[in-house]
Amino acid sequence: MKIIIDTPEAIARAAAQRYVELLGRKPDAVLGYATGSTPLGLYAELARLCKAGELSFARATTFNLDEYIGLDGTNDQSYRYFMDKNLFDLIDIPKENTNVPCGLDMTDEKAAEYDRRIEAAGGIDLQLLGIGNNGHIGFNEPGTPFGSITHTMHLTESTIQANSRFFASAADVPTSAVTMGIKTVMNARSILFIALGSVKAEIVKKMLCGPVTEEVPASVLQLHPDVEVYLDPAAAALL
Ligand code: F6R
């Protein structure tokens, strides 16, 4: 595991260079993406590089980590909408190459199909991850089995509270989601992890320095052979 501590702006630039390197070497790479506030700087930088002609996603395929159950892609709180607005509409990727789990009529049987689609695409080359205040990756809340594949999940109260900042009120936050499982994430060949801000300091310490336990889902990354961890000084403050 490689740990890089830098400003959010420098992290966005350095992380974007991973995509320049990967897509330069493998233009049809399979990319795993995340939503939330953490990747916004990186997505802006990827869009800038693409517009400048330094990066092309024309042959790439993407798979997002998760989606709220009950929201369809036209809902402005859905993760499909977020990805279109913050990345896909700003780069040269064909929309049909982008995959976000469907939040409607979702069951665990249908969710498992997402893993088969990832496998059929050749597996994820580079998976981007953020971390929830409770240690979740994707929407894999504490206690999710490390062997899990894409599945549905009831969100914990702490996640609903944390994500309520994007909604009018906590009561508007969907209470369940579909998410890649921990095993799905661990199957990615490389992982690019970003945590920003003091609110993440405590959980980053547990993830990196604590025991590997299903109670801290992100701690499983200690077992992955190729992880780059990008932290700003505030998120790294307790290391
Ligand atoms: C979202 C996702 C989540 C977020 C996490 C942190 O697709 O995978 O695990 O990465 O909730 O969210 P932010 O970045 O908003 O702090």
Brief rundown of the structure:
Helices cover 30% and strands 17% of the residues.
Protein described:
It is globular and about 45 Å long. It has helices spanning 8-25, 40-51, 79-86, 108-120, 157-163, 182-186, 201-209; strands at 2-5, 30-33, 61-64, 66-68, 98-99, 126-129, 151-154, 176-179, 190-195, 227-231. Helix 1 crosses helix 2 (40-51). The chain has a single domain (2-196, 206-231), classed as Rossmann fold (3-Layer(aba) Sandwich). It is an alpha/beta fold and 239 residues long. The mean pLDDT is 97. The chain has 7 helices and 10 strands. The two termini are 15 Å apart. It has a 7-stranded parallel beta sheet with strand order 1-10-9-6-2-3-5, with helices on one face. Strands 4-8-7 form a 3-stranded antiparallel beta sheet. The site of fructose -6-phosphate has 13 residues, from loops.
Instruction: Tell me the fraction of residues in β-strands, as a range.
Output: 15-25%
- Named at the architecture level, the CATH assignment is 3-Layer(aba) Sandwich
Total strands: the figure is: 10
Mean pLDDT reading: 97
Task: Give helix % range.
Answer: 25-40%
CATH topology: Rossmann fold
Following the backbone from N to C, one meets helices and strands in this order, namely: EHEHEEHEHEEHEHEHE
Domain module count: 1
Strand order of the largest sheet: 1-10-9-6-2-3-5
Question: What ligands can be seen in this structure?
Answer: fructose -6-phosphate
